[in-house]
């Protein structure tokens, strides 16, 4: 279907840089700000958008849905209302506040950055994206969000949502997963970004558009879009051809055996390495590969009972754990492990979501 394309609108130049004509950019910027002011959702972090509030919310929102973040955000700010409190909190308490959100390195980086802000910036987050990006865990997107929303700086925050919306608006067939397209979209937006309150509304407007109107996985709701008369894909009926993405690399599958070792009413747990996947969290002993009952009997002669106790699966970004659980009743504890009751494990230790099925089982 061709609804009469405005052929003079955007172009992708030979060298890969996207350009728009000035009038299109101006019209898009103005309609977006007006639209956002009228429709944006009153999310908790928008009610009082200090740099700290925007920062915490953006870190939580990485890989987590808005509805799921809202209660965590409230609990987190109640316990740690400012940067000093975050810098000084004990790590165990911090991880407990984060429990369920996953990707715990985000929480650790928040604290590292808070300590750096206390030491180097007198307890105040810097305003400029370039300075913000020097802090642990703050990348281009988060820096852009803090700088524009909380400080009114003309700095875009470009994520998958923004890339999708812009690729439809401009009918840009570049691979949105490629750094080159992200860089090009970022510099295009930067050229046209407003300052002050309009900067905040532009960033939030792009987020709102991507999350509620120009949605992924299905037809965008163009009838609700402030850009429907400006959008090239809508004019050409090609909305569903964008964004273009190169096929992802397949995830690595890992078979794992999880050992629920019981001694009386206590269960064995151990702390993971301080680096790598799920760094520093507590877990039930587990190992790569499948084991058989015979192997376990040979390795644990002190076990009175050994029985399989169910399978579970957890998907990380690059790897998928397919787990088989084994319950072993032991006559005496093994050294090198921590032995606690199920209630203590639940209340005092941060167990990763990947192993929550087995925590529920022992409870
Ligand atoms: Fe997305 Fe449709 Fe709006 Fe274009 S008009 S930006 S395709 S929602």
Rg from Cα: 25 Å
Kindly, what is the distance between the CA atoms of the first and last residues, rounded to a whole number of angstroms? 58 Å
Mean pLDDT: 91
Count all strands and give the number.
9
Measured by DSSP, the beta-strand proportion falls in 15-25%
Order of helices and strands: EEHHHHHHHHHHHHHEEEEHEEEHH
Query: What class would the helix/strand composition place it in?
Result: alpha+beta
- Report the total helices: 16
Fraction of residues in helices? 40-55%
- Provide the low-confidence segments as ranges: 1-16
Bound molecules: iron/sulfur cluster
Strand count, sense and closure of the main sheet? 7 strands, mixed
Shape: elongated
Give me the oligomer status: single chain
């Amino acid at each position: 279907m061709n609804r009469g394309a405005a052929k003079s609108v955007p172009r992708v130049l030979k060298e890969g840089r996207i350009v728009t004509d000035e009038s299109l950019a101006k019209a898009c910027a103005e309609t977006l700000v007006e639209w956002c002011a009228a429709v944006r959702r009153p999310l908790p972090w928008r009610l009082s958008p200090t740099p700290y509030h925007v920062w915490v919310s953006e870190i939580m929102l990485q890989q987590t849905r808005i509805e799921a973040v809202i209660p965590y955000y409230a609990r987190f700010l109640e316990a740690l209302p400012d940067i000093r409190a975050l810098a000084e909190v004990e790590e165990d308490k911090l991880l407990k506040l984060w429990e369920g959100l996953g990707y715990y390195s985000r929480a650790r980086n928040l604290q590292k950055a808070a300590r750096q802000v206390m030491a180097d910036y007198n307890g105040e987050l810097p305003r400029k994206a370039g300075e913000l990006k020097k802090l642990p865990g703050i990348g281009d997107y988060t820096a852009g969000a803090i700088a524009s929303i909380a400080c009114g700086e003309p700095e875009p925050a470009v994520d998958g949502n923004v890339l999708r919306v812009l690729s439809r608006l401009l009918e840009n067939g570049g691979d949105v997963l490629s750094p080159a397209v992200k860089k090009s979209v970022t510099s295009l937006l930067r050229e046209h970004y407003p300052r002050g309150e309009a900067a905040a509304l532009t960033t939030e407007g792009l987020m709102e558009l991507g999350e509620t109107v120009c949605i992924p996985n299905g037809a965008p709701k163009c009838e609700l879009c402030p850009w429907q008369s400006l959008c090239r894909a809508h004019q050409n009926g090609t909305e569903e051809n964008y964004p273009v993405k190169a096929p992802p690399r397949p995830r690595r599958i890992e078979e794992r055996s999880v050992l629920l070792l019981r001694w009386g009413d206590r269960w064995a747990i151990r702390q993971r390495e301080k680096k790598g996947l799920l760094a520093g969290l507590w877990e039930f002993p587990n190992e790569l590969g499948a084991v058989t009952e015979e192997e376990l009997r040979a390795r644990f002669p002190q076990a009175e009972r050994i029985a399989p106790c169910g399978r579970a699966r957890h998907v990380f970004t690059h790897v998928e754990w397919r787990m088989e659980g084994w319950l072993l009743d032991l006559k005496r504890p093994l050294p090198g492990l921590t032995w606690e009751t199920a209630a203590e494990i639940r209340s005092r230790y941060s167990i990763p979501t990947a192993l929550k099925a087995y925590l529920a089982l022992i409870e």
